């Protein structure tokens, strides 16, 4: 039987709002959100709104967490309909008002797109801004929490994060640990919170011949390579990682380190490596595309992620899918991924424990094929789960909900 295409319901219109996406100066940033948006765009009509705070060009007034550099309105990312824009702010000073100002900048853009639902990734200020703008327009709003946007919060930021999460129509988390935090630490109603774990590109992150990857990247075949992938910021455990590596290197001439990524600590890390006399044993290839990241992981003996906090560390899943064991801090959702067959967990901020675990991981024999087989969840599954959450919420909304309450609980 032929189904008349005109009888099919129109595709949902979903507005994604997020400040966390890959940019030319930091290609590793927000890859998981880009992948989610790209896969969701195959199931619905999606536009991604990319807010960026525009800071004045005054020395000393710059955020400490991210590299500076805005993208223009013509910036594009593969597979998504992207609309970048900026709004004014002052680092630290405007923290309490960024959500309000961000809502003013976002609301007319949402009105022009006319979505069925607003989906915001990153709780404050952008999730809060999305919620306020959605309320003004009578739209449903879902906020997706990713990790440090709920784990690393204090003062006014924590208060406003709580307001955003409690005011949202639904909350998505990337791990059960984050779901518990949203409910227990922020008072979100349990039936509003759903866990949707990230996926990976299984065509990219897969086992490869280590020797061939090392030949391609110029890594010595005898090297015992520890690799880190991510932002260069203190909260990722960069000091602990360098301290652990220096201790390993002092007794093992074959140990080397790859730092894949970029961030505000780059020049500091270069200086620390040079001061320790380890510059010939540390590789810093910069922020890379996923295919290149996969090559570095496949060339490694172990991946290290000594973060102080995490949501659902996607690079851990990517490494395991490549058949590479992982040593990571036991924070956030890491414990939901790592077990005795694919890695080791260590306390955060403990360089000594990290050193011992890295040494143990490099001395063990791991079943790469079994590790990889456990990691088969792709981005299409993430998109399907995300669309299901949107549909469930829209099905629950009363016809008069479109009037839009102006207040946020």
Q: Main β-sheet, in a few words?
A: 7 strands, parallel
> What is the N-to-C order of secondary-structure elements (H for helix, E for strand)?
EHEEHEHEHHEHEHEHEHEHEHEEHHH
Radius of gyration, Cα only, in angstroms? 22 Å
CA-to-CA gap between the ends?
A: 50 Å
Instruction: Briefly note the CATH topology name of the largest domain.
Output: Rossmann fold
Structural class, from secondary structure content?
Answer: alpha/beta
Low-confidence stretches: 1-8, 399-409
Residue fraction in strands? 15-25%
The CATH C-level name of the largest domain is Alpha Beta
Number of β-strand runs: 13
Broad shape: globular
Q: What can you tell me about this protein's structure?
A:
The structure is a single chain. The protein is α/β, with parallel strands linked by helices. It has two domains: 10-199 and 379-403, Rossmann fold, CATH 3.40.50; 210-373, Glycogen Phosphorylase B (Rossmann fold). Helix content is 37%, strand content 17%. It has helices spanning 31-40, 98-113, 123-137, 148-151, 155-167, 176-184, 210-217, 238-251, 266-275, 290-298, 314-321, 351-363, 368-373, 379-396, and strands spanning 13-17, 45-54, 82-88, 117-121, 140-144, 170-173, 193-195, 224-229, 255-260, 282-286, 302-305, 326-329, 343-346. The strands form two sheets. It has a seven-stranded parallel sheet, sandwiched between helices. The chain has a six-stranded parallel sheet with strand order 10-9-8-11-12-13, sandwiched between helices. Helix 6 links the parallel strand 6 and strand 7 (193-195). Helix 8 packs across helix 12 (351-363). The longest helix is centred in the C-terminal third of the chain and has 18 residues, at 379-396. Residues 1-8 and 399-409 have low confidence and may be disordered.
């Amino acid at each position: 039987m032929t189904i008349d295409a005109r009888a099919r319901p129109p595709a949902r219109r979903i507005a994604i709002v997020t400040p966390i996406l890959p940019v030319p100066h930091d290609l590793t940033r927000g890859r998981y959100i880009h992948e989610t948006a790209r896969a969701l765009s195959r199931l619905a009509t999606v536009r991604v709104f990319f807010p960026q705070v525009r800071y004045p060009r005054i020395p000393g007034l710059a955020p400490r967490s991210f590299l500076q550099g805005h993208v223009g309105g013509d910036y594009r990312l593969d597979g998504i309909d992207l609309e970048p824009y900026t709004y004014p702010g002052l680092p630290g000073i405007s923290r309490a008002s960024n959500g309000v100002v961000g809502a003013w900048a976002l609301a007319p853009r949402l009105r022009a797109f006319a979505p069925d639902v607003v989906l915001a990734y990153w709780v404050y200020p952008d999730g809060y801004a999305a919620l306020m703008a959605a309320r003004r327009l009578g739209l449903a709003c879902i906020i997706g929490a990713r990790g440090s946007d709920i784990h690393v919060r204090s003062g006014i930021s924590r208060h406003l994060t709580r307001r955003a999460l409690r005011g949202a129509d639904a909350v998505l988390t990337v791990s059960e640990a984050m779901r518990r935090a949203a409910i227990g630490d922020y008072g979100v109603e349990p039936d509003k919170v759903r866990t949707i774990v990230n996926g990976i590109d299984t065509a990219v992150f897969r086992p490869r011949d280590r020797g061939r990857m090392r030949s391609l990247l110029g890594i010595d075949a005898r090297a015992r390579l520890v690799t880190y992938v991510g932002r260069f910021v203190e909260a990722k455990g960069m000091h602990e990682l360098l301290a652990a590596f220096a201790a390993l290197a002092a007794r093992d001439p074959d140990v080397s380190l790859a730092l894949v990524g970029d961030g505000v600590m780059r020049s500091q890390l270069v200086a620390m490596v040079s001061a320790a006399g380890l510059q010939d044993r540390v590789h810093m290839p910069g922020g890379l595309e996923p295919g290149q990241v996969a090559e570095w992981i496949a060339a490694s003996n172990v991946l290290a992620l000594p973060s102080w906090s995490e949501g659902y560390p996607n690079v851990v899943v990517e490494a395991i899918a490549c058949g590479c064991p992982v040593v990571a801090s036991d924070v956030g959702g890491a414990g939901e991924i790592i077990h005795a067959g694919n890695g080791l967990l260590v306390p955060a901020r403990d360089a000594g424990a990290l050193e011992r675990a890295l040494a143990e991981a490099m001395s063990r024999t791991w079943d790469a094929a079994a590790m990889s087989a456990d990691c088969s969840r792709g981005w299409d599954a993430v998109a399907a789960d995300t669309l299901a959450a949107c549909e469930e919420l829209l099905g629950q909304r009363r016809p008069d909900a479109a009037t839009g309450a102006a207040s946020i609980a």
